[in-house]
Amino acid sequence: MAETFEGARTLILDNVAPLPAESVTLLDAGGRVLAEQIHAPYEMPRWDNSAMDGFALREEDCRAAAQLTISGYIPAGGSAENIQVTPGCAVKIMTGAPTPAGCQVVVPIEETEEDGKTVVLKGTPQVGDHIRFRGEDIRQGELVMTVGSVLRPAEISLLASFGFTTVRVFQRPKVAILSTGDELVEPGEAIGPGQIVNSNAYSLAAAVKEAGGEPLMLGIARDNRESLQGKLMEGLQADVLLTSAGVSMGDRDLVCEMLQEAGVEQLFWKVDIKPGRPTAFGLKAGTPVFSLPGNPVSTLVTFEEFVRPALLKMQGYQKVLKPFAKATLSKAVNKKPGRVQFLRVLVAEDGGRLVATSSGDQNTGILRTMLRANGLAVLPADRGRIEAGEEVNVHLLRAHDSFL
How far apart are CA 213 and CA 317, in angstroms? Predict the structure, then answer.
């Protein structure tokens, strides 16, 4: 009996776990997931400092039109150790420079007039203006990042500010990719009668990279036991094994049978979805094994819905399932009840709402429709006809579309 869409995803995610941690340099840490807690080794800022280029002065000199003697200068990177603001005086100071003793306010240059020896205040500054106080951002010992944090540019900036040169992150999964079939040839090879190019391996490799994994290309296994056995055993040494084709009902569809002989426990063999029903998932000593359909469109759809979330969880991501976007269907769609259907759609903004339009022929042999699509409308299993104007759930495929 085939598994449901939601049941299949639950089985997969319940049976994969984050990989061990490794140390990487900050330059290699972007987009990775933190595998350790980070406590602030010191306060941020480490000292009171100026937020503006201007003049540091005392509270009693904060008067409109006050004329003060310029008694010192502190550049960015300079020291205020031997400098003090005295009554009737101001110290010229640059952004980021430590504020000197006696300073209660910094007045920006544009709010003053100076002649090199004296400075006149245009307005009435307030105590505390334009000073960044020690520890006002982060206190020493404060927990600033937790396990599972995604290291974006802001996180990298903070780590660098605290002097980190390396950081512990979860490993990227090494994903073995195996195509099966006597009819396959590699790109660049001569194509004979009845042969097709092994495009799935390359689309899957690109998808694995996009999801943060490291693809390992195993080549093509022919439709015989000897060829399959060797390639499968090699693939089971990786963190994840992906196979495409050979999981349907044909006489030469041997993948599931050979995986079972190799000790892979099958958790499901089929899923009630369209496209992609002949999708299988199993485990060998904790190693996830995905057997995807051979049709290029089905391969890409099932990777998106099943494999990508697993790879993200293995890298330590906390949120691995794409949220649904709500879009209005532009034209009615007829489907058979009983399976979740993934409709390839083009989503566009129209009058402040998202509208989903079929990207073309939904036959699984039409790859062009996948090229045009920027989303997969997930049509419920219990529905038949879905009318134009109804709202549907869409998994968006392109992160940089203008409406996001």
Answer: 13
